[in-house]
Amino acid sequence: MSIATSIDQGVLTIGFDRIDKKNAITAAMYQTMADALRAAETDAAVRVIVIEGKPEVFTAGNDIEDFLKRPPTNGADGAPAPVFQFLQAISRATKPIVASVSGAAVGIGTTLLLHCDLVYASETAKLALPFAQLGLCPEAASSLLLPRMVGYQRAAEKLLLGEAFSAQEAFEIGLVTKVLSVAELQGYVRQQAAKLAVLPASSLRETKRLMKGDDAAAVEKKMLEEGEVFRRMLVAPEAKEAFTAFFEKRKPDFSKFS
Ligand code: COA
């Protein structure tokens, strides 16, 4: 079980649970999360959703072995690949989503936060969007949402260079709601989720819709556009070199590609 889910007092908790691989996300894990988010939409027992990792690591992002050997494709029934189902479900969620981030949050580990409502991070959190470093391009509508949220130049630095940045910097540029110590994080997140769980669901739903509503169509459109480019780049030689270098524990060499 690489995703642990539980429902308690109105709070659905979705937890990354693959610590030996730094919570890297496989297709099966995306599917579990997509299913849980969709089921939450119609489950009156769920009033709030918490997405959490472990104190050591939130998630190392997409499983790179999956990227290499099983790049996302539509299912035989035409259903979108699990990662796209997950992104669609998180971006369409009508209930509040609270993220609890400690340690590394790489790639989709950071872009999924752009779809959460409250993002709490520990002082050890390290966010990173290393798409260009991997020969890829942004996903999860981050090429639209990040510049809007933090300004073009700051978004460009994060998306073009792909270097990791601290929880404190993420807070300062507006990606994180509050920074806490590792010891405080889980308790604080539980407390905030419990507060939301007893507020009127209709008010939360309408407030979220009013804040996000106008962007919804643009987000879907950008995700489709990014998805097309991403799928093409995933099987290109630049990405192959980056993934192989990761497993060979060396720096990639992109000098032969123009
Ligand atoms: N996909 C598949 N396996 C991964 C992984 C990923 N995204 N991230 C880490 N792992 C695996 C490593 O291969 C290693 O496996 P092994 O023990 O069988 O050799 C194990 O998890 C531990 O990773 P390691 O790199 O040794 O841990 P670390 O503490 O030194 O570094 C990270 C942690 C998250 C900074 C680092 O693992 C990393 O950069 N991962 C890749 C992140 C990435 O590029 N994701 C894709 C984003 S689009």
Automatic annotation (TrEMBL):
Keyword Transmembrane helix found: no
EC number: 4.2.1.17
Gene Ontology molecular function: delta(3)-delta(2)-enoyl-CoA isomerase activity; enoyl-CoA hydratase activity
Entry keywords, A to Z: Isomerase, Lyase, Peroxisome
The UniProt record lists the keyword Isomerase: yes
Highest taxon above the source species: Bacteria
Compartments, as annotated in UniProt: Peroxisome
Gene3D superfamilies assigned to the protein according to its UniProt record, in alphabetical order: 2-enoyl-CoA Hydratase, Chain A, domain 1
Name of the protein in its database record: Enoyl-CoA hydratase/carnithine racemase
Species name: Cupriavidus metallidurans (strain ATCC 43123 / DSM 2839 / NBRC 102507 / CH34) (Ralstonia metallidurans)
